[in-house]
Amino acid sequence: MILDNQIADAFYVDMINRNLEKNTAKQYSKIVSRYLNMTGMKQFLKGAGYQKYKPFLTVFLEHTRAMKHSYSYTKTQFTAINNFFMYLIDEDFVDHNPVPQFRARYVRTYKAPEPAPKKQCTPAEIKLLVDTAPHLLWKTIILLYAVTGLRREELVSLNIGCIDFEKRIIHVPPHKKRTNCRVPVTDEVLGFILDYLEIRID
């Protein structure tokens, strides 16, 4: 029987002999000591396969999750244990490393689902929004959004001096996300703007 602290110390010496950076060797040694103490794995039987050691790895993984360790640190911990089993193989304590198979199955992240594509309103839907808007101001804003693609902060920054009614152009004040500051508009949009200006109270 090999005591946990003896095998962990021997593992640390082996890492130093392999020229691992000293801080890394210390970190890996601490992780392996915690792994051994937690799982109660006090001896290593030659010839034990994946199923023999999987329960120990499962216990350790459950602990890391209970402690809410980050995914990055969890990977580091299993890298340390992987190195430890490689050492055990080299020292003829075991002839199988269960970590790669376990890590590939249980220590991983999954890609977040692709966001749903943004839905663009059809002309009929835009007309319905304009027709049902309760105020001329909202009708004008909806059309401006739909026709020009202005952002909210750009729309708020507009004033009457920004609109060239003759050339049907809106001069958008400089904004860090816009390269084109001249936005064409339709006669319909200009008509709504003029109608709103007639009823606007300054």
Automatic annotation (TrEMBL):
Gene3D superfamilies: 1.10.150.130, Intergrase catalytic core. GO terms for biological process: DNA integration; DNA recombination. Residues 116-202 form the Tyr recombinase domain. InterPro entries: DNA_brk_join_enz, Integrase-like_cat_sf, Integrase_catalytic, Integrase_recombinase_N. Keywords: DNA recombination, DNA-binding. It comes from the Archaea. GO terms for molecular function: DNA binding. This is Tyrosine recombinase XerC. It comes from Methanolapillus africanus. The lineage of its organism: Archaea, Methanobacteriati, Methanobacteriota, Stenosarchaea group, Methanomicrobia.
